[in-house]
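Hi team,

As requested, here is the filled-out complex form for the pyridoxal-5'-phosphate run. I kept the field names the same as last time so the parser does not choke. Let me know if anything looks off before we queue the next batch.

— J.
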Amino acid sequence: MAQALKKLSVQVLKNNNVDQIIGCSALRASSTWWCNVEMGPPDVILGISEAYKKDTNEKKVNLGVGAYRDDNGKPFILPSVQKAEEVIFKKKLNHEYAPIGGEAAYCQAVAELAFGCDSVMLKEKRNCTVQTLSGTGALRLGLEFIAKHYAKVPEVWMPAPTWGNHPQICNMLKLTHKQYRYYDAKTHGFDLKGALEDICKIPEGAIILLHACAHNPTGVDPKPEEWAQLSQAIKSRKLFPFFDMAYQGFATGDVDHDALAVRRFVQDGHQVTLAQSFAKNMGKKERRIIVGNDAILKLAN
Ligand SMILES: Cc1ncc(COP(=O)(O)O)c(C=O)c1O
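And here is what came back:
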């Protein structure tokens, strides 16, 4: 599947952007400043979007990017998001710098969304929440924090497979990353046995990356009782859980249910890091660069 998607995206790039790419390469070659810049790999998912746009089939459906669409396949803006934008616009807010850690009220609201309004950890103010540039920014900042300051084994263990940017970010930071078993291709389900076996062999003190819900790219999540087993295994192995929650509400339609794993781990006494994104569930993909307040990195204990 991954190979087929890659092939398709390469094909699309060839068909659509060949002139542009050749133009850029020529420019690069003639520049003494940038002659060492290498062409990056094609983005598989964006390649699918390009293929979708070109396809003339009336029944086409784009499953490449997780975004809301109306019955006509057009982008759908959530009424709540529209309303919030109107409120913000009417307030005529200034465009001054936010505090270095982000807007306090925003950080509090997103922390409650993740950990629950009744979270003891929040009530006791044991969390440290900062605003970042979307979910990718939160991952980057969290992992960079680990790369610089983590006192134990700075090795990040990721599910196999995982979102392509997880290993990329570690590579940029020169953080060792390895994989534990997650997806069972035979059952198309979660490989609990394989995951538990692998977790028991991860060096004590290492970091384990967990997709909180709607695992990307498989869509396969552990059941609540499986999360409970994972939590215990991770605790006995003294691993540090780093959650990536990019789809809260997308998996079951219930934001509280989708936060189950994160809340369970906190209740079980884990210290966790959580990278949160609102690009998908709020349908605010294009805004992430402009406002930079779609996501959050939490360092909770
Ligand atoms: C698992 C996962 N984490 C993080 C992100 C990044 O989210 P954002 O678009 O907010 O940077 C994505 C986006 O596709 C994702 O799938």
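Two things worth flagging: The first helix runs from residue 2 to 30. Residues 2-54 form one domain.

Thanks,
J.
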